[in-house]
Structure formats: structure tokens, C-alpha cells
Amino acid sequence: MTQNELIQALPKAELHVHIEGTFEPELMFAIAQRNGVAIPYQNIDEVKAAYQFHNLQSFLDIYYAGANVLLQQQDFYDLAWAYFERCAADRVVHTEIFFDPQTHTDRGVAFATVINGLQAACDDAKSKLGISSHLIMSFLRHLSEEAAFATLEQALPYQSQIIAVGLDSSELGHPPSKFARVFAKARELGFLVVAHAGEEGPPEYVWEALDVLKVNRIDHGVRAEEDAHLMQRLIADKMPLTVCPLSNLKLCVVNDMAQHNIQRLLKQGVQVTVNSDDPAYFGGYVNANFTTIAEALQLSADEIKQLAANSFESAFISAEDKQYWL
Ligand code: ADE
Ligand code: ZN
């Protein structure tokens, strides 16, 4: 069996994907047309040509613009359903999906429109494709603490459909501690908590995610390697890192995939997983992330199996479900 066949055959969980980041240009055009919303591109080639990023912010500007065409419940359903079809093709059997309600509610789209569309697709993914899923509501960290509190309030009627809260968007200048009180409230309400930290931000932001937000997982976290004490902490706590290799390359967090630290982190005993982040923008879904690092870093079959096993170990699923897939 080749490495690529092994990657294709292994059951996997995806733990770091933004549903707005799975918006393929073809679907964006179709939804823009049926909603009568103008987009600043003439055709698919123009869209793809615009996807050249030099850092996180240069990507976020284009990503938020793309999300503007999403208006109706059916749009959110179609977006999520298209992603689930990609999961089926990649043998992703469980996925934990971020959604950014503020990206939509700030444009006048109701919270209910967003979550009802996503939930209907999650239900169909289970019944038609056998794929289980959870939704993670992410706060936009460039917005205020007050806005995050208002979003948490809006989520309360849907709490049973939201497993965790997260923190994403522009990292630099918006440390996790800015949201200490929101996360304390979310934990008190019974949500699990995760946060993007150590993608572009320094190791101090990972410390804050751990000690101030008290996260159950770190999203990205690759810059933790710069702090030996932090590495010891992550290893001792078996703290999962949801690493996104193609994202790191496209956003210039690393300059060359052969330089990516995921294999070093794995060898040192950090519980790293492989994820796609925003696959429509970064050039590939879960299996493309696996095959790219397998080739660039010469991963062994055992390392590939360990990464897939880590995805279930790190998932917000029962011990029985972990056992089933491991
Ligand atoms: N939102 C979508 N993708 C993101 C990323 N990689 N980092 C921060 N916020 C995001
Ligand atoms: Zn992300």
C-alpha cells in the first residue's frame, strides 16, 4: 500500500475547519446569483487568482467578503452539505465544524438562519453519509468583548446544538485574555472551549489560552515550539493541537512545507492532529493536508497512523466512540 492509499483508507476526524472557509468558488457564484448579490469577480479563474495571501489578515479580508453572499438557511445548508461530501470522499468520519455567527449576524442574517441551515446538513450527513459532527461557535477576536457576550446570549436557545465555543480571526493584538470573562461564562454554562493561539501570535498567547481561557484544545499552536517550558506543559497535559499544514504554508506561517514543525512536535510527544482550516482557500481538504506533509516531511506509515489516531483521541466524542475508531 502506498502512503497515499494508506491516508485515503484510514478513518479520520477533522477538528479544525471553518465552514465559511469551505466555500468553493463554484458554489459562491451559484449562491451569489440566486441571491442577486454582486461579487467582485467575473469568473472562477479570477477568484482563484485573488487567493494569494501574505499573512492571516490578507486572507481574512477575502474570506469575510466571500461570506457576504450567504443569506438564506438554504445557503448555509448547501455550504455545509458540500463540505460533508468532501468528508465522505476523504474518509473523514467525524468532524467538528467552526462557524462564525458574527460574520452573518452583523450583516442582518439571523442567528437561527445560520444554525438551522448548518444543523439540517449535520443531520443529513449522519443519516445519509454516516458522518457524525459537532458545531463550534467561534467569536471574532477583532471585535469587542461586549459583542462576544451578545453572541453567547444569542446562542443560548441553541446550546444543545453547540459543543464548544472558540476564538478566531486576527490574532496579533487580540490576546486570549481579552475574552477571559466570556470564556469563563461559557465554561460555567457547560460549553467546552477552544481557541486559535500560536498561529501568528507568540507563545504567550498559547499560555493565556491554557491558563486564562482554560481551553480543551489549542487551534494551530505551532509557535509553541519556541518555548521549551510551554512544550513540556502541552506534552504533560496531553493538550491537543489542531494543526493545519496547508493553511500555514498559504498564510506564510512557514515558508516551505519541508520546514513545517508538525513532525518534530509529534516526535516530542505533542498530541498534534492534521486539519484543513479553510480548504477552499488553501488548496485542499484533510487528505491533501496529509499527503502534502507525508511527502514533504517523509512521514512513516506509523506517523501517519498516529496522526489519524490523535484526531479521534482529541475529538469531543465519548470514550466508546474513540474506542470504535482507534
Ligand atoms: N478564521 C478562518 N480561518 C482562520 C485562521 N486560520 N486563523 C484565524 N481565524 C480564522
Ligand atoms: Zn482556523
Describe the structure.
α1 (3-9) runs antiparallel to α15 and α5 (73-90) runs parallel beside α7 (111-129). This protein has helices at 3-9, 25-35, 44-50, 56-67, 73-90, 101-105, 111-129, 145-155, 180-189, 203-211, 228-236, 245-250, 262-268, 279-282, 286-296, 301-313, 319-325, and strands spanning 12-18, 92-99, 132-140, 162-168, 192-197, 217-220, 240-243, 271-274. The protein has one domain (3-316): TIM Barrel, CATH 3.20.20.140. The longest helix is centred in the middle third of the chain and has 19 residues, at 111-129. It has 326 residues and is α/β, with parallel strands linked by helices. It contains 17 helices and eight strands. 48% of the residues are buried. The two termini are 20 Å apart. The model has no long low-confidence stretch (mean pLDDT 98). The chain has an eight-stranded parallel β-sheet with strand order 1-2-3-4-5-6-7-8. It binds adenine and zinc ion (ZN). The site of adenine (ADE) has 10 residues, from loops. Adenine binds at residues 18, 21, 56, 168-169, 196, 199, 247, 277-278.
